[in-house]
Amino acid sequence: MWNGSMNYQMNKTDQSQHLVHRIKFDKYFMYAMDTTGLKIGSKTKQCSHSKDCDGGYLKMCCVNAVMTDQKNGLQDTMFRCMNYKIASANFEFSMNNFKIAMKCVGDEKKKTKSGSQFLSSTLLISMISLIAMTFN
């Protein structure tokens, strides 16, 4: 479930657990993120759309990471600029007692368009190859 806002009250123990796991998440993926000016473990929303993340020569995306505490079901969400390939490769995983699901936000139309372009190009190349083989 990808909620933009969490509507629950956490006690101090839950808050500290989520802070610890945000810090672990940030440290684990530090090599793949651009967190310039953002404190490790910060709850601050770094981005809201992939176009907010400029990676220079690397393709970056705005990752929505939802961390679910498997003991009590409480969720914490964060948004970070991350390398697109790393975000895609680590779509869902567990870290201690937390299940973490990630996805790039704001690229849905772009991905669909590039997927349909790839399929169209493949179909066109196949048809040209078949035509070329008939004339040989």
Mean pLDDT, to the nearest integer, reads: 76
Task: Give the low-confidence spans.
Answer: 1-8, 109-114
Radius of gyration: 20 Å
Percent range for β-strand residues? 15-25%
Tell me the series of helices and strands, N- to C-terminal: HEEHEEH
Topology:
Blueprint (H helix, E strand, L loop, with lengths): L11 H17 L31 E10 L5 E9 H6 L2 E4 L2 E8 L2 H28 L1
Antiparallel strand pairs: 1-2, 1-4, 3-4
Describe this entry's structure for a reader.
- The model is unreliable at 1-8 and 109-114 (pLDDT under 50).
- It is built from 3 helices and 4 strands, in the order H-E-E-H-E-E-H.
- It is of the alpha+beta class and 136 residues long.
- The protein has helices spanning 12-28, 84-89, 108-135; strands at 60-69, 75-83, 92-95, 98-105.
- A 4-stranded antiparallel sheet has the order 2-1-4-3.
- It starts with 11 loop residues before the first helix and ends with a helix.
How do you describe this structure in short?
This protein has 136 residues and is α+β, with helices and mostly antiparallel strands.
Name the descriptors:
3 helices; 4 strands; alpha+beta; 4-stranded antiparallel β-sheet; 136 residues; 2 domains; single chain
